[in-house]
Amino acid sequence: MNSEEAVQLLQQVIQIPTVARDEAKVADILEQLVAPYVQAGKMTCERLNYAPGRDNLIIKLGSDDAPVKLGIDGHMDVVDAGDAAKWQHAPFAAEIADGKLYGRGASDMKSGLIASFIAFLEVAQTLDPAQKQLVFFATVGEEVDNYGARQLAAGHYADGLDGLLVCEPSGPQIQPSCRGIIDYTVTAKGKAAHSSTPEEGANAISGLFAYSAAVAEEVAPLIAKKHAMLGHATHSITLIKGGNQVNIIPEAASLRANIRTTPLATNAEFTAAIKRALAKANAAVDGVTLDLSVDSTIDFAASPADNKLVQSIQTARGAIDLPEVPVVGGTGINDAAVMLQPGMDLAEYGPGSDTSHQTDEYVEIADFLAAIQVYKELFANY
Ligand SMILES: [Zn+2]
User: Fold this and answer.
1) Could you tell me the distance, in angstroms and rounded to a whole number, from the CA of residue 303 to the centre of ligand 1?
2) pLDDT at position 252, please?
3) Residue 330 to residues 46, 213, 303, Cα–Cα distance (Å)
4) Predicted local distance difference test score (pLDDT) of residue 314
5) Please, what are the domains in the chain?
6) Rounded to the nearest whole angstrom, what is the distance from the C-alpha of residue 152 to the centroid of ligand 1?
């Protein structure tokens, strides 16, 4: 595939608004392109349905018995475009201006998805199927709760891989680890009363304040620990609701919070800390009952900074005269967090810009084309 065809394929895929839906339309395009290889017996292609119109795609090149196995991951969904009127280049037009390709998903992460897919197709000509297996995963629902990757992990699709390359936009750096996440809700139930006689009620908001103070104290020792690559864990109360009217003691209130975890301050340790804080707060405010629900929890994914996949990416860059890039911890969460298994090499590395999830999201076309070359070298040398 030449550069022009590569860019056209990326445009075609960006023009499909896969905002938590219709990933199957992207899967259709990819499946059509691998069909000749499947017919020739060089690849297998499987669709794994998540919901109507939403299929994960798993394409395998090389033997199941090969001694080296590399997984390649890209998500097909994108976040909402927001107010389209605020975009200078319509979000799903895939317009090109000044060497940049604009559109929702141009950076996060249809450029990484398509660049790695093209490289995958191109190495099919030369890869020795007995020596190496490449497994290409195109997933659904990454932006919501990693639905597709969860389905792949549960279905054991990532079992036995030596390495997992996640083609998310990484900036000019490689990320061999990412922090974990916990989302939780605390609900407070009290008793309404006229605010002139608060002693007759039980203030649910006071319950939340007690919780907020208690949790700050309980998580402080965890947040204090600094991981060499992932830095500090964090805990943030991000939503709060409560009360109906200024002269009524509120009978109900709730808050939600988001935690980012590290190998030094784990999901299990944070969960224990918030439970202790809840018990303290329950004891602190008479007549108010606090309940906790952990809405989502995903462990950190951490692989050594000098793992073989990271080294292979640096070597691949060198092969096309690109300089080495820094190896840093990732702060966000992506498919890696649910697909990585102990002992597996991880690297997040892909084209894109710092405009992910923003208006006028773009990728530099040169960055996209260079990524294809790096991935080709990488798939050959890993
Ligand atoms: Zn992404």
Assistant:
1) 19
2) 98
3) 30, 29, 12
4) 98
5) 3-178+301-381 (3.40.630.10), 180-298 (3.30.70.360)
6) 17
pLDDT value at residue 103: 98
For 54, 131, 301, the CA distances from 51, given in Å and listed in that order, are: 5, 36, 27
CA of 109 to the centre of ligand 1 (A): 5
Cα 95 to averaged position of ligand 1 atoms, centre (Å): 21
Strand, helix or coil for residue 71: strand
Q: What is the pLDDT of residues 157-180, one digit of tens each?
A: 999 999 999 999 998 999 999 899
Ligand 1: centre distance to CA 108 (Å): 5
CA of 327 to the centre of ligand 1 (A): 19
Can you give the pTM of this predicted structure?
A: 0.88
For the chain, the average pLDDT equals: 96
* Ligand 1 centroid – CA 123 distance (Å): 25
Pair of tokens at residue 75: 């998500």
Say which amino acid occupies 286: D
Q: What is the pLDDT of residue 145?
A: 84
